[in-house]
Amino acid sequence: MKSVISYTLSHCVKCLKCLRICPTEAITIVHERVQIDSHKCINCGHCIEVCNTQGLQGKGSTLIDINNYDKTVALLPSALLSCCGSLKEAARLVEAIGQTGFDEVVQMSEVEGALLERTAKIVRAAQDRPLISSFCPVVNRLIRLKFPMLLERVVDLDYPAEIAARRIRQQYGGKGRIGIFYFCECVSKLQLARYPYGNEGSEIDHAVSISDQFPLINRLRQNDARTLSLCAKGLAAAAPHTGALEGLQVLEADGRDQVMQVLELAEFGLLNRFDYLSLSFCTNGCIGGQLLWGNPFEARLNLNQLLQQAHSQPCTLNDLNLSRPAEPPDEDLLTMREKLRLFARINEVMEKLPHYDCGACGFASCRNMAENIALGKRKWSDCRIIGGTGGKEDDGQRTD
């Protein structure tokens, strides 16, 4: 999984906020430059949120790419419509996006509703519970990195945008070059498309940052629009605590701290009274995505109003492959014996470090620093607190 976060040195003021906020310690500062470890980055976008100087950004494709296709389709998640307080406003928004140059605009509520129904069916048929939702890329990557024992509990369903794109490909097969543009509600979903981050296995051609297009869309949304049909189940899936899965014991958690706590408890088998864990790394679920305009609190009110006006049914997905392609295993060149020796060496180094987690060395924690000293990538003298007091091991070389 590639990191969608880009770094601009000229905008960086070395405030260390990004270093401290990263939940996987993927960010380090080396020679006064921010470095992002793509193997650790889960694309949560927290570092972008705390960067006040735009030194860190996540950008998608531009609408210029529309010209490269015979027919273009804009793909809209239900969360995008949460800025609208009525069905009429939502119709105007969809129409405005179409007027930016697309031949067709597809809103995804019917697909999202169908996947919610399929999820309920899978959970009810499962022998081992709880199962875990599969629709948040950040949560999926976090489980893969830090909670691999839970991987088998993740529901085997692909992202709604990928399923919707497959339907479009099926519909327009053999009718020229079709360009599918996904308007992403959060930074993590920018990585789902082929451009600009190179996900060649995706059915989506371009990921577009909704917020980047807001000025143009806002000007166009004042015009009248055709009627719009929405699926209530799909809308309900865009936010937690909407009772989307009736008849099941569902634990819904959103935001970094809650998700981490739930995964830690689930790993130790302490949530087995639940059937399903619905997790979203964005606070307030997908309607809290960093790329949406407005605020998630008003968005929840808007969503409740739209739910009362949504009457279409989920679509049929029988002819489509709904499973996510298998990800290649993370590269791990160490044997178990070598891992145990490294772990012992890290603990040995940790005993000599100050445990301040000050970030002055360029690492988020003393534990991260200890790992790099144990691997010979850093020296004891790189710690600003103890300096060169590590004695004979100042050269940073492993002694085992």
Describe this structure in words.
This protein has 400 residues and is of the alpha/beta class. Helix content is 31%, strand content 11%. The strands form four sheets. The protein has a four-stranded parallel sheet, with helices on both faces. A hairpin with a 2-residue loop joins strand 2 (27-30) and strand 3 (33-36). Helix 3 (87-98) crosses helix 7 (214-220) and helix 11 packs across helix 12 (366-374). It starts with 5 loop residues before the first strand and ends in a 26-residue tail after the last helix. Mean pLDDT is 90; it is low at 390-400.
Summarize the structure.
With 400 residues, this protein is an alpha/beta fold.
Offer a few descriptive terms.
disordered C terminus; 4-stranded parallel beta sheet; single chain; 400 residues; alpha/beta
Low-confidence region ranges: 390-400
Tally of helical runs: 12
Structural class: alpha/beta
Q: Kindly provide the radius of gyration, computed on alpha-carbon positions and rounded to a whole number of angstroms.
A: 23 Å
Shape: globular
Question: How many extended strands?
Answer: 11
Average pLDDT taken over every residue: 90
Give the strand line-up of the largest sheet: 6-5-8-9
Distance separating the two termini: 33 Å
Summarize the biggest pleated sheet.
4 strands, parallel
- Order of helices and strands, N to C? EHEEHEEHEHEHHEEHHEHEHHH
Share of helix, binned: 25-40%
Q: Quote the beta fraction.
A: 5-15%
